[in-house]
Amino acid sequence: MKKIISGKVREVYDLEDGRMVIVTTDRISAFDVILPTMITDKGKVLNALSNFWFEYTGDIVKNHMISSDLKDMPAEFQKPEFEGRTILVKKLKMLPYEVIVRGYMFGSMYEAYKKGEPFLGHAFDREYKQAEKLSEPIVTPSTKAAEGHDINVTLEYMKNDLGEKLGTQIEQTALAIYKKCYEHAFKNGIIIADTKFEFGLDEEGNLVLADEVLTPDSSRFWDLSKYAEGSSPASYDKQFVRDWLKANNLAGDPSIKEIPADVVEKTSQIYKECRTKIVG
Predict the structure, then answer these.
(1) 127 CB contacts (<8 Å, ≥6 apart)?
(2) CA-wise closest residue to 25 among 12, 13, 42, 49
(3) pLDDT tens, 27-46?
(4) What are the DSSP calls for 223-254, one per residue?
(5) Higher-pLDDT residue of 144, 264
(6) For residue 5, what are the β-bridge partners?
(7) Where would a tag sit more exposed on the chain, N or C end, judged by fewer CB atoms within 10 A?
(8) What are the C-alpha distances in Å from 206 to residues 161, 187, 267?
(9) Nearest by Cα to 190 from 153, 236, 156
(10) Cα–Cα distance between 147 and 38 in angstroms, integer?
């Protein structure tokens, strides 16, 4: 067994038998800096949400999950600190794209729209306010950069690179997952404005959903009770930490020593509320 990834949030171990162990930590990053203070139980929340969605979307696409039971993992992981944040997964040939599904007019898409420009090959069929629901969700991939920022590309770019058949399958699968999960979240008081998926291929060439799925770290979750078109809606994510950093002129500062306890507690509560609403 060897550790192959130590990311902003996750530690990934290769069991060298076609399986991997992924541990979701309580680390939090903002403005491209991994912050020095952990957010209590954040990793458990992200893990619980992903595991829920993997099972919920199993009728649409295969996923990489094998088990979340520590007894199925090497002895090194059969310890209390790994409980609730560790999964055993199938190793895949990962595709070099993040597949972003956008259901609402927001962020960089809204900036392009205000300038009257198409967004990554998508033209708009009518007038929109900020944060307004699109007529239909759209897919906008980005390339996964080993270093630096990912690069947004058009759907056509991805299809040309991966082949029309696989590219179209990815597009249709991502939209199907988004639509099914959107309805579940909406009924429980959360709007999934946009999200990103990652896919791989198994040894038989089947498309497989991997990484994390529909968490506050990979998605824009809005509180339905506070949602209003024409505004920037309240979100279930690390925005509370980002706002604190900006207010204290610490955004992007790698020398930050700690996050105050009240900011940690509030952020932890936001993540846990999201889990409760979606998972129950």
Answers:
(1) none
(2) 42
(3) 999 998 999 999 999 999 99
(4) EGGG--TTS---BSSTHHHHHHHHHTT-TT-T
(5) 264
(6) 12
(7) C
(8) 18, 32, 38
(9) 236
(10) 24
Give the count of alpha carbons within 13 A of 122, CB side only: 26
Token pair listed for 157: 């770019």
120: which DSSP letter? T
What would you measure as the largest C-alpha separation in the chain, in angstroms? 57
Residue 145, judged by CB atoms within 10 A of its CB (0-12, 13-18, 19+), counts as: exposed
User: Do 53 and 120 contact (CB within 8 A), yes or no?
Assistant: no
pLDDT tens across 241-256, in order? Answer: 999 999 999 999 999 9
Residues in the chain: 280
CA separation for the pair 132, 148 (Å, rounded): 31
Which CA distances in Å does 261 have to 43, 171, 266, 267, 268?
18, 42, 9, 10, 10
pLDDT at 152 over 70: yes
Burial of residue 3 (number of CB atoms within 10 Å: 0-12, 13-18, 19+)? exposed
Q: How far apart are the first and last CA of the chain?
A: 35
Question: What's at 95, amino acid-wise?
Answer: L
Query: Dihedral (C-alpha) 222, 226, 228, 233: value to the nearest 10 degrees?
Result: -40
- The pTM for the full model equals 0.94
Measured between alpha carbons, how far is 26 from 277 in angstroms, rounded to an integer? 20
